[in-house]
Amino acid sequence: MTNPSDALAQTLPDSVTTWIVIIALGLGTYLIRFSFLGLIGDRKLPDWVLRHLRYTPVAVMPGLVTPLVLWPAATGGHLDPARISAAFVTVAVGVLSRNVLLSISTGAATLYLVMWLGG
Question: Which of 1, 11, 77, 113 is least enclosed, having the fewest CB within 10 Å?
Answer without folding.
Answer: 1
